[in-house]
Design goal:
This protein is an alpha/beta fold and about 280 residues long. It has a domain of about 190 residues: NAD(P)-binding Rossmann-like Domain (Rossmann fold). The chain is built from 10 helices and 10 strands. Strands 2-1-3-4-5-9 form a 6-stranded parallel sheet, sandwiched between helices. Strands 6-8 form a two-stranded parallel sheet. Strands 7-10 form a two-stranded parallel sheet. Helix 1 packs across helix 7 and helix 4 packs parallel to helix 5. The chain is globular, with a radius of gyration of 18 Å. The two termini are about 35 Å apart.
């Protein structure tokens, strides 16, 4: 039986990765933060020393507002962890983000220059730079994620549902500037499973995976509202610039992934939401 170590295995994406691999017959190690502090180098060394066949790194602080003025622990997680995981030479799938780009040149191919606008993007770009030249590492960039979760506030997509429900019929302002491609974590997990036999064994470097529909958070809200029994009229478009800069449009091209013949078709946004809300 093959074994996979899922770093960040209790998170929004990691929990789905662990589930999909387990269903496919893999032995899964997905420690919670209580079981393994991923900001502690010795804890990371201990996990890698168990000798898994594959490592999938889903661990990150992904909220841009919380990444500004980052302290040592956050930098360990977002920047240094991938390098520590890669040191053993075990095939590694490292999850990264569309926020390594500035949003001015979409759609972005995998070899497009990184030009992050905020601290989160800079941290993830630095992590990529630390591991991208290693033949046993595959970097998979994904955009804004949503999926099964304990709390709708765990995702920047389903938090819109939480805000609408809490407003009890009152208006909720939603960004109507930045164009995003909301991507279903169950699809990403299935994509990682499809790549698993090849990651670091013929496939390395950067790949992109993304949902198929471009929309602002305001347009997401219009889709979400009726699914939770709210009036779409509650959704109010907001064009106020955010406190932390966000890219305008970071659409990722999946051209390189499609050429492998392994591309997992994304679930339509409304259909995926119906499985989550």
């Amino acid at each position: 039986m093959k074994t996979v170590l899922v770093a960040g295995g209790s998170g929004l994406l990691g929990s789905q990765v662990a589930k999909v691999f387990q269903e496919a017959g893999w032995a899964v190690r997905a420690p919670s933060h209580a079981e393994a502090d991923l900001t502690d180098p010795k804890a990371v060394e201990g996990l890698v020393a168990e000798g898994p066949d594959l490592i999938v790194n889903c661990a990150a602080q992904r909220r841009p507002d919380l990444c500004e003025g980052a302290g040592p622990a956050l930098l360990e997680l977002n920047v240094r962890l991938p390098e520590r995981l890669a040191r053993a030479g075990i095939p590694l799938v490292h999850l990264s983000t569309d926020y390594v780009f500035d949003g001015a040149g979409a759609p972005y191919e995998t070899d497009a220059p990184r030009r992050p606008l905020n601290a989160y993007g800079r941290q993830k770009a630095a992590a990529e730079e630390a591991v991208e030249g290693l033949g046993h590492v595959l970097i998979l960039r994904v955009p804004i994620l949503f999926g099964p979760c304990r709390d709708w506030r765990d995702s920047a997509v389903t938090v819109l549902a939480a805000n609408l429900a809490a407003a009890k019929g009152a208006a909720v302002r939603m960004d109507d500037v930045a164009i995003r491609r909301p991507t279903f974590t169950c699809d990403v997990a299935r994509q990682i499973l499809a790549l698993a036999p090849h990651a670091g064994r013929g496939l390395s470097g950067v790949f992109h995976y993304t949902g198929g529909e471009a929309m602002t958070k305001f347009l997401m809200g219009l889709t979400i509202a009726p699914l939770i029994g709210c009036d779409p009229a509650q959704c109010v478009p907001d064009r106020t610039p955010p406190a932390v800069p966000r890219p305008y449009d970071c659409t990722l091209s999946v051209r390189r992934l499609a050429r492998t013949g392994l591309l997992v078709p994304p679930t339509p946004f409304a259909a995926a939401l119906a499985r989550v809300l």
